[in-house]
Design a protein that fits this description.
Blueprint lengths: L8 E4 L18 H9 L6 H22 L5 H13 L5 H15 L9 H11 L1 E6 L6 H9 L5 E6 H4 L6 H11 L6 E5 L2 H10 L3 E5 L12 E2 L19
Helix pairs in contact: 1-4, 2-3, 3-4
């Protein structure tokens, strides 16, 4: 149990915590995106398109791995499309391909059964926020709305808007500032050790890791089998609209 602090907020990771998903940039299937790129003038077959996207994304990932800086969907799309077209794409072309790609990538996002009840139960006792790495600012809010749980979430803090991805300290500071709380007022829960456990802990928050296979060296009291376990680990605190 968390004790000796007033926990008023629960900060949640999104991908892998509130939804299941595939992080792959190619396995979801991108036939529509390939066709759109070809209609713009790209001369490349489908396997080549997937390779180009994977290689282009990897270059951005390598840059981010150095300092945890974040890149946008528009940036990676413009870079990949520019190589395919052998010219600078227009803003409209970039936006169209980014949208098509995200629609197909989203087919790999799965809403676990019972998640609205789990999140609703937490919201009965605490104020909630989502702090997530993403390349598209409206992607996670859109999923929260589709799941019917957006009404439970006070704010969504995204890496692409902050400019830094978890576990960079800036994204946790941004979330705490937006919520107007101190680290002692918050717990953080997610499924990735560096981003959702070590990073929040370094920022002064109490962190819980979804780690059913016990792959990471965290105290048993901070290890969750799933998000459903979190409520039983938290102190009793029920907020009111004015609290």
């Amino acid at each position: 149990m968390v004790s000796e602090q007033i926990v008023t907020h629960v900060l949640l990771d999104f991908f892998g915590t509130l939804v299941d998903y595939s992080p792959s940039r190619t396995e979801q299937g991108y036939r529509a995106s390939h066709a759109l790129a070809c209609s713009m003038g790209a001369r490349i077959d489908y396997p080549g398109f997937l390779r180009a996207w994977a290689e282009g994304s990897a270059r951005f990932d390598e840059r981010s791995a150095v300092d945890d800086s974040e890149f946008s969907m528009e940036e990676v799309t413009a870079a990949v499309l520019g190589r395919l077209l052998r010219r600078d794409p227009t803003a409209a072309e970039t936006a169209a391909l980014a949208g098509a790609y995200l629609r197909e990538w989203n087919t790999g996002v799965v809403y676990p059964p019972g998640m609205p009840e789990i999140v609703g139960g937490l919201a009965d006792r605490f104020r909630l926020a989502v702090v997530t790495n993403t390349h598209q600012a409206d992607l996670v809010p859109g999923h929260l709305a589709a799941m019917g749980i957006d009404r439970y979430v006070e704010t969504v803090v995204t890496s692409v808007e902050v400019g830094w991805r978890k576990p960079h300290p800036a994204i946790y500071r941004a979330a705490l500032r937006r919520l107007e709380i101190t680290p002692a007022n918050a717990v953080f829960a997610g499924d990735t050790y560096a981003a959702d456990y070590a990073g929040p802990a370094a920022a002064g928050m109490t962190a819980f890791l979804i780690d059913p296979a016990a792959r990471h060296n965290v105290p048993a009291s901070r290890r969750l089998r799933s998000l459903a376990d979190l409520a039983g680990r938290l102190p009793s605190y029920e907020h009111t609209p004015d609290s």
